[in-house]
Design brief:
Order of helices and strands of chain B: HHHHEEEHHHHEHHHHH
Radius of gyration of chain A: 22 Å
Shape of chain B: globular
Number of strands of chain A: 2
Largest interface: A-B, 49 and 49 residues
Number of helices of chain A: 14
Oligomer: heterodimer
Strand order of the largest sheet of chain B: 1-4
Number of helices of chain B: 13
Structural class of chain B: mainly alpha
Strand order of the largest sheet of chain A: 1-2
Distance between the termini of chain B: 65 Å
Helix content of chain B: 55-70%
Largest sheet of chain B: 2 strands, antiparallel
Chain lengths: ~375, ~300
């Protein structure tokens, strides 16, 4: 019986760590709001009302949260997958830009029957993102280049190219602030009418479950995880860490492609790319927070994406009381810093025990 | 201005100006990484340094107090990162990703919270660091300070006992421990040194170069610095050359970008990505021949 309790405790530890990080992050964020002279209570109330509210009376706030959560799950999963293979892939952001470019370029093609055109848009978005992720993959595998620096640089390059190409060659003739619009037959349909919640969320959860199954219940998935946690042992067992790295990079590109497609083709009312890529910016970076909060585990990521989605949804409410949406990154940043400390829960337990003058708990 | 020498001098001065933040951040990071700690939060520290420098500058009327404020925020982040990387045995990449996110948040939120403007706050030129004049051209004294710091750091790292201790902690912490070096303490101090220099680099961006602060003021320079650390083989003197190379492309783009002859061939938006592309080529082409400190990124624990 005590063995079972021990097993549960072990499973619960990372969840408790995440919860502690969340609490510290919220305290830090509220402190920033307080220092800036705003009413913290009022701000938190707005945050809550615009992300959750009272779902029995009005489901709308919750649908906004889930609208944000859909693509976040995929960008989070893309980062987590690479961490599992031992890589810090910060390039999801740029791959999402590329996916959007792919979708817009394919949209400009004329003369195809509707279903074929829709397929082309999907394929093009994913192909552009995967191709962009192939660059850091190749540089890592063949040149052992630092993937953090390479992917960050590629994000800047992607931004320059995508923003330029879209607004030079594919601007919307009726609205200078956006690109040409994805045709109705290629859009991801709405899940709840009169809201912004589309089938995005269903697609994301489905993709997440597929990746979960691949990672934990298939041999290649197992090999990828072993290569990430212990490259030496992997090589000894005949597993190629390089192959695992390349696979995870390209899979991340695929996920980024779907995430970008969801943003461009599954989000009313724009169904396009906004100028300065403003409707795409940050999705890749927020995915990093999602992955880390979710413990780089596909199932944890579902909850983490909803949580970060709620923060973003709630930030619209903060905007109403004059607090810029960037405050979300203050919360996220502090949460991520806390998550870097591996056993924050044990540390706190030990500190409390120490303060009580009791015996120090051994690790 | 039309003489070729004049043009060449112009480019040299622009390169020197662009070089300062990259140089300060790289020289600091060289010391940090030599001690065995990696800090990928340089970009965030530049941003925070720029923001807090403007606050201190406008409050006191002295840009040098702004520089001190930038140094102070760098010091604080360095202390935190140093402790997480040593005593707490945390993940050094993860916490500094958090620092970058936090910086984006604080600066984006703070610019509005403090000045009630969106995204950018400029300061009058009377509040910026006054230039000195060499060859009839304005030069920031920060250029000389940054170069001085790089040379001093080289001497300190390679010619003094403390420098030897820093390098020992990064190469072989076990041996360092055996000879009585407090590995964790040295690493924390080296991390503080690195982050403080990055904070000063951030202050330079706002109270000197750009005379103001924006949400995007760091523009990837922290990442260029990180690439430069490996490019210059963890050597502060070589880091001067590396920073000059990165800054040269930065300056070149700014100089030829607006020219109509150039614009008709390559648009400015694309030209602006050149420094980043150069970095990718450098990091995947040249860096094969260098070797990082052996214990880089691994928290030390006594076995």
């Amino acid at each position: 019986m005590s063995a079972v309790i021990e097993a549960i405790k072990e499973k619960a530890e990372p969840i408790i760590n995440s919860l502690i990080a969340l609490i510290i992050g919220f305290i830090g964020g509220m402190l920033a709001i307080y220092v800036s002279g705003h009413d913290v209570g009022q701000a938190m109330y707005q945050l809550y009302m615009h992300s959750i509210g009272n779902p029995f009376e009005n489901i709308y706030p919750l649908t906004v949260t889930l609208t944000y959560a859909g693509p976040l799950m995929l960008s989070g999963l893309a980062f987590a997958l690479c961490v599992r293979a031992g890589l810090f892939n910060i390039g999801v952001e740029g791959q999402i830009y590329m996916a959007a470019l792919g979708a817009v370029v394919a949209t400009s093609v004329v003369g195809l029957p509707a279903p074929l055109h829709a397929l082309l848009i999907i394929a093009s978005a994913i192909a552009f993102a995967v191709a962009w992720s192939a660059i850091p993959a190749a540089l890592k595998v063949f040149r052992d280049a630092n993937e953090v620096v390479v992917t960050i640089m590629l994000n800047y390059v992607a931004f320059g190219f995508v923003d330029y190409i879209i607004f030079r060659y594919f601007p919307n003739p009726y609205d200078a602030t956006k690109s040409i619009v994805i045709p109705p037959y290629a859009r991801i349909p709405l899940l709840v009418p009169q809201t912004s919640l589309s089938w995005n969320i269903v697609i994301s959860v489905a993709v997440l479950l597929v990746i979960y199954f691949l990672l934990w219940y298939t041999r290649p998935g197992y090999e990828l995880r072993v290569a990430g946690t212990n490259p030496k042992a992997a090589r000894y067992a005949g597993i190629s860490p390089k192959k695992a790295m390349a696979t995870s990079f390209l899979l991340a590109g695929l996920l980024a492609g779907i995430a970008g497609l969801e943003k461009v083709a599954g989000l009313p009312p724009s169904y396009s790319v906004m100028s300065s890529l403003s409707n795409l910016q940050g999705l890749g970076f927020d995915g990093i927070a999602v992955a880390l909060i979710g413990g780089n585990h596909p199932l944890g990521i579902v909850f983490a994406a909803v949580l970060v989605g709620a923060l973003h949804a709630g930030a619209r409410g903060l905007n109403l009381v004059g607090i810029p949406k960037e405050i979300v990154w203050v919360f996220q940043g502090i949460i991520v810093i806390c998550l870097a400390v591996p056993n924050i829960y044990t540390l706190i337990k030990r500190r409390i025990a120490y303060l009580r003058g009791k015996e120090v708990i051994k690790e | 201005m039309t003489q070729p020498w004049g043009v060449a001098l112009d480019i040299v001065f622009m390169t020197l100006r662009s070089m300062v933040p990259i140089l300060l951040a790289s020289v600091g990071e060289v010391v940090t990484e030599r001690s065995g700690v990696v800090n990928i939060g340089l970009e965030g520290i530049l941003l925070l340094g720029a923001f807090f420098a403007v606050i201190a500058d406008t409050a006191t009327g002295s840009p040098w107090v702004g520089v001190l404020a930038g140094a102070a925020i760098g010091l604080a982040i360095g202390l935190m990162h140093g402790i997480i990387s040593t005593k707490l045995k945390g993940n050094q990449i993860v916490d500094t990703i958090g620092v970058n996110t936090f910086a984006l948040g604080v600066v984006g939120f703070g610019i509005f919270a403090v000045w009630h403007v969106w995204g950018a706050r400029t300061i009058p030129s009377s509040l910026t660091i006054q230039p000195i004049y060499i060859a009839g051209r304005a030069l920031s004294p920060m250029v000389l300070i940054a170069l001085g710091i790089a040379i001093f750091t080289y001497w300190w790292l390679f010619k003094t006992p403390f420098g030897a201790a820093v390098r020992a902690c990064g190469e072989d912490p076990d041996a360092a421990d055996v000879v009585g070096i407090n590995v964790d303490l040295v690493r924390i101090l080296a991390t503080i040194y690195g982050a403080t220099l990055a904070g000063i680099g951030g202050a330079y961006l706002s109270v000197d170069w750009f005379a103001g602060v924006t949400k995007e003021i760091s523009a990837g320079r922290g990442w260029l610095a990180l690439a430069n650390v490996a490019f210059s083989n963890w050597n502060p003197l070589l880091a001067i050359g590396g920073s000059a190379l990165f800054a040269f492309f930065d300056a070149l783009v700014m100089w030829i970008g607006p020219m109509p002859q150039v614009n008709s061939i390559i648009p400015q938006e694309i030209l602006r990505t050149v420094p980043y592309i150069v970095t990718i080529i450098v990091i995947s082409g040249v860096i094969k021949r260098v070797r990082p400190p052996k214990a880089l990124g691994i928290p030390y624990s006594r076995e």
